[in-house]
Amino acid sequence: MTLTVPHWPEGLTDATPLPFNIWRVMTHVDGAREVAEVARLAGMTVPDVQDRLRMAADWVKRATQHHQQVSDEMADAVTACLTPVVGPMAAVMVDEALDDLGDGGTLNGLLSHVARQLSPERVQQFARNLRARGLA
Fold first, then answer.
1. Taking Cα atoms as reference points, which of 133, 28, 119, 117 lies closest to residue 76?
2. Could you report the per-residue pLDDT of 17-58, keeping only the tens digit for each?
3. Best CA proximity match to 55, nearest among 29, 81, 37
4. Please, what is the angle between helix 120-132 and helix 72-86, to 10°?
5. Residue of 73, 116, 79, 119 whose CA lies nearest to 95
6. In the 3-class helix/strand/coil scheme, how is 79-99 assigned residue by residue?
């Protein structure tokens, strides 16, 4: 990003849950202030602000993705993340979860359904795998 006037990513609202270090920047982004001014107000460097702007866009993308209907590619990605955790049963677990959720199943619903079947340690491993693929 260059030294321009930053804007909120499309889909970001005041109600979007973001980590404080991102809101710390976004609260100063008003569509009129340049990046340098936002950095000054947030008490950060310009590169840090640019990083937080990218992070905000990534958060919105993931949040939007979680409310989308599960595609075959998404189901395959979830299965790939679950396989190292539970082995070959991953495909069965994902298929059963999708059957339970029906045609309107969302990624968020799928992940919640699968996570309920795992121990806390396995949920953590599953979450790490999802984050590595940009799904969590």
1. 133
2. 888 999 999 999 999 999 999 999 999 999 999 999 999 988
3. 29
4. 130
5. 79
6. HHHHHHHHCCHHHHHHHHHHH
Amino acid type, 36: A
Whole-model pTM: value is 0.59
Q: Return the SS3 of 43.
A: coil
Give CA 111 to chain center in angstroms: 12
Rounded CA-CA distance 92/50 in Å is: 42
User: Rounded distance, CA 27 to CA 111, Å?
Assistant: 31
What is the tens place of the pLDDT at every residue in 65-85?
Answer: 667 788 899 899 999 999 999
